[in-house]
Design a protein that fits this description.
The complex is a heterodimer of chains A (about 120) and B (about 130).
Chain A lengths: L1 E6 L1 E8 L2 H11 L7 H27 L3 E3 L19 E7 L6 E9 L7
Helix pairs in contact in A: 1-2
Chain B lengths: L15 E6 L3 H11 L4 E7 L2 H11 L3 E5 L7 H11 L4 E6 L4 H9 L4 E4 L4 H13 L1
Parallel strand pairs in B: 1-2, 1-3, 3-4, 4-5
Helix pairs in contact in B: 2-3
Classes of the chains: A alpha+beta (about 120), B alpha/beta (about 130).
Chain lengths: ~120, ~130
């Protein structure tokens, strides 16, 4: 899953999820109702949307200015990100779960106040 | 013998018509499930701001629930356009963005309600009740 933000906190967040975990999240969101694959993807994107919205909101409140993010992009299989040297800082976070591990890389820049992108 | 039972006509309930503008089928189903059995009728689901602007003129909803982060024009811009073409419609923003700056931006275009995602059912119902009392 790739999420981009713009504004004072410019970032590219690439997170990888095991498919078992994605299935579990979607099944809980849908209360195990049958869904098309398109809807399953849309449900998971909304899950990421809600997580990332809360994340950006916290950053916005800390910084006192707004950043915005664009619709998450879901990619199946391998993803080769553009080099992280487009951003000045990078953070990696790994989470373990009974369904496999989630890896998250946040490449970011905190821009001066007068910048908009 | 014919027994005639005189019935008092039931009080007519006026259902408030709701249009959901949100690209997520999950949010549409969550809102629909939350409002099931209450005095609201969901009359449509637009998956983008552009589609919502077209549907509002055709369906004439009383209330719109509106996402902020959407493909195409975002919820803030959509709300501004909605207020131009349907100034009487009540708009409730639904968003995972709930920071101070977003709240001020929502207020600056004349809107009063922002419900955060994930939706808490009680909060959504209470907000809609307030909207209906205006």
């Amino acid at each position: 899953m790739v999420v981009l933000s713009k504004g004072i906190f410019k970032s590219r967040v690439v997170s990888t999820f095991p498919s078992l975990l994605v299935d579990e999240i979607v099944n809980r969101m849908s209360h195990n109702s049958p869904l098309s694959q398109e809807d399953r993807d849309a449900y998971f994107k909304e899950y990421i949307n809600m997580c990332f919205g809360r994340f950006i909101s916290k950053i916005n409140n800390e910084m006192g200015r707004a950043s915005r993010f664009v619709i998450p992009v879901m990619i199946r299989g391998l993803y080769r990100a553009a080099p992280d040297n487009m951003f000045s800082d990078t953070a990696h976070v790994d989470f373990g779960s009974e369904y496999g591990s989630v890896n998250m890389t946040v490449a970011y820049d905190i821009l001066p106040e007068h910048s908009s992108n | 013998m014919v027994l005639v039972i005189a019935e008092t006509p039931p009080e007519r309930i006026i259902m408030k018509k709701i249009l959901i503008i949100d690209d997520s089928p999950f949010i549409y189903k969550e809102v629909a499930a939350t409002l099931e059995g209450l005095d609201y009728e969901i009359i449509g689901h637009a998956k983008s701001g552009e589609e919502g602007l077209r549907m509002v003129q055709e369906l004439k909803p009383d209330i719109i629930t509106l996402d902020i982060v959407m493909p195409g024009i975002d919820g803030i811009e959509t709300a501004e356009k909605l207020l131009e073409i349907a100034p009487d419609v009540k708009i409730v923003m639904l968003s995972s963005l709930c920071d101070y700056d977003t709240v001020s931006e929502v207020e600056s275009i004349g809107l009063k309600y922002l419900v955060s995602k994930p939706i808490e059912k009680d909060v959504l119902i209470e907000t809609l009740e307030k909207v209906c009392q205006e």
